[in-house]
Amino acid sequence: MSTETTTPAKPARTSRQRLGQFLSDNGALVGLVVVVVAMFIATPDFLTTTNLLNVGVQAAVVAILAFGMTYVIVAAGIDLSVGSVAALSAVSAGWIVGQGMPGALGLVAGPLVGLLAGLLSGLATAYGKLPSFIATLAMLSVARGLTLVISGGRPQSMPDEISWLGSRVLGVPVPILVTLVMFAITAFVLNRTVFGRSLYAVGGNEEAARLSGLAVKKLTAAVFALSGLYAGIAGMVLAGRLSSAQPQAAVGYELDAIAAVVIGGASLSGGQGRATGTLIGALVLAVIRNGLNLLNVSSFWQQVVIGLVIALAVGIDVLRRKTS
């Protein structure tokens, strides 16, 4: 006589549960659609081709910074220095060109300065055992101070090789093209490489990742170096748009970058995050700012709105972790 063991069937999910799961997986996209529709209703000029391209340009620098931040947050870290590092990279490039060096050298040197700054933060975090919050807060101050020292507090003019980043190719602004390239690279690294999968492991459980043989310290240093590199590229794009490197450029951009990543569905506790979500998060912030500009809302009130959006995004992340 044989006995068969049957596994009880899982109860079917209700419509409410399915809706909750859909919103959890696609909340950022739903939020973007809602914001776009709201802005279109408030001001029909919003959905013009010219304005949509402006939104893309406005989102570009924050999106690139946020892509670099995604690596860090997935690995359960935080990088508060990206805005200052972006400014330092741009000013360094301007200074190099001002010494009679070719513009192409400045274009390459800027991102390398960002890479070096990020690597120093990563080494301080991984091997100096400083919390990433403290290490990058220190780098924020150091990078901004060096920016003012190098520039003497004055804007640095940009050569054509860098100013070109603010131009258009076949009618499409170059900042948007650079953003799409950085998005593709980030998505590939996170989804298709051993390095990317290792970051999710480190962010999910650092001790388990270490016991499984992952070089956690090297991975930690690498993600901050990548974040610095992306900040350097963002600095070049910003300088190209302005045709100059401003010592006080990108102040507060690190908060927008963190907000974009969290709005996109990443968890500040690590182990979660997608390039697609980050791009959507950056677009949400850009759409809100652009729409408020079209509605002639004071920049002071815009800061209030963006702050509330950041608080809402973090609150949703907390709730998501409690219910998961």
TrEMBL record:
Location within or outside the cell: Cell membrane
This protein's UniProt keywords: Cell membrane, Membrane, Transmembrane, Transmembrane helix
Domain of life: Bacteria
Transmembrane segments: 22-43, 55-73, 80-98, 104-123, 130-150, 170-190, 219-238, 300-319
GO MF annotation: an example: transmembrane transporter activity
GO cellular component: plasma membrane
Bilayer topology annotation: Multi-pass membrane protein
Name the record gives this protein: Monosaccharide ABC transporter membrane protein, CUT2 family
Species assigned in the record: Ornithinimicrobium tianjinense
